[in-house]
Input
Amino acid sequence: MTFHEEPDPRREHRARVDGSGQITQVGRDYHQTIYATSAPARAPIGLTDTVLRDVAGFTGREAELGRIVEASAGAGSIAIHTVDGMPGVGKTALVTRAAHLLAGQFPDGRIFIRLHGHTPGQRPANPADVLAEQLVQRGIPPELVPGGLDARAAMWRDQLNDKRVLLVLDDATGPTQVEPLLPAARDCFVLITSRRRLVALEGAVPLALDVLPPAQATELFIRLARRNPVGAEVEAAAEAVRLCGHLPLAIALLAGRLAHHPAWTIDRLTAEFADSQDRLAELRAGERAVAAAFDLSYRDLPVDQQRLFRRLGLHPGSDTDARAAAALDGIPLVAARHRMEMLYTDHLVDETAPGRYRLHDLLRTYARSRVAEDPAADRKEATARLLDHYAHAAEAAGRRLARHIRPGGPPSAPSGPDVPEQATVEGALACACRTPQPSRLRRPRRCRLRPPPGCSPCRRSGPLSAPGGALEEGGAAPGGIRVRTPMR
Ligand SMILES: Nc1ncnc2c1ncn2[C@@H]1O[C@H](COP(=O)(O)OP(=O)(O)OP(=O)(O)O)[C@@H](O)[C@H]1O
Ligand SMILES: [Mg+2]
Output
């Protein structure tokens, strides 16, 4: 009997009462749940195990797993933990591994529910439908499943009352989707994964999952590629995962190619990947692709957010702030702050220091590919606004420095977006080192960098600190800016 056929309610009900029958889940996977009413009993009603099979070659994440295991041992009140992170960072892998580690602790079952926040070709699961499905799985005859969301949620909580169940809610879109699914029983343990930070989910303990540390990423690559490298090949593997931004999904896809080409060396693959004009295109295997995973997050954004995100691809630096974002997008600072915060909430930018944001390398590549589809005039305008902004920022920083060298006149008001007020000489120096000198910057095609004499950070490496370095139109994204480093 498949899920879509009419069940025999008397039989299921009797089974639930006396435990002699069964609704055994023999689902091949989460998409094809099949109920077998005629098969021998595998588990009494009420004992459910729908956790995915364990992740082959699971690597690292000891600290994160330790936190989850430790939290699950704390009795007393329902524990809700969220695991959030960028697409493909390993959220599902982590909670699946954790669910297997915790198997013995939850005698009343482990329930794994896919909420399809980001499944290609599938809409996010409706919590009312999820509850109906779960209630039927637990032996409630379909005609006894109530119609409304609240009533179903109440029945679900009642079903889990006094139970010790591990509930995994995978790939949630947000609190509205998960709240009706949360049990009330004190001994239940809930793990929720999401690409979003579920800030509004009250009482949940967040675990923001980062990309793998380099050593674990290299180990994962080697394991999935089924190689035993030594010496230079290990270094090549480390370089390959660096080019993947240490993102597990990217590593898995690249390593998978190697596993299927025994004749290839790691060295050769890495060299080709490094030289590739389109790395995202290389990170694909059939339906699975890094770009496709990013697409699903990008498409979820409101159009204003999408525009800002892709314009961040025009920025030449490794990190940025809301002022530069405001300039790029031609929006007020307050709106830019809000939108950067939203992108942060969606794990599409990371925060490296308060107010400073960074795109993961592969997300930057993705943003560049998206902004390349915009009209050339839009890109040019955005770039010009950004250069203007930095010109003003440098001018303000220069004035701040000048006041400490000789008395200066009152600062002129910038004509473009707001520029940072440098509160300290150090701040001004750092800004001057990061930004072009103002004198030649009025919508320039190129601007020379002249770090202030005696400024030690300027002597350090980095293209913007090099005497004679230049910021000019061009770069990876059409209409973008590139940093030109002179020969030393
Ligand atoms: N620690 C790990 N060890 C082994 N493989 C891993 C690990 N983390 C992730 N992977 C693999 O990387 C790929 C992406 O991981 P996963 O699907 O868990 O990411 P995700 O964060 O859930 O992605 P999404 O946001 O699309 O749901 C999978 O093939 C997974 O098996
Ligand atoms: Mg997932």
Summary: Residues 6 and 142 are 9 Å apart (CA to CA).
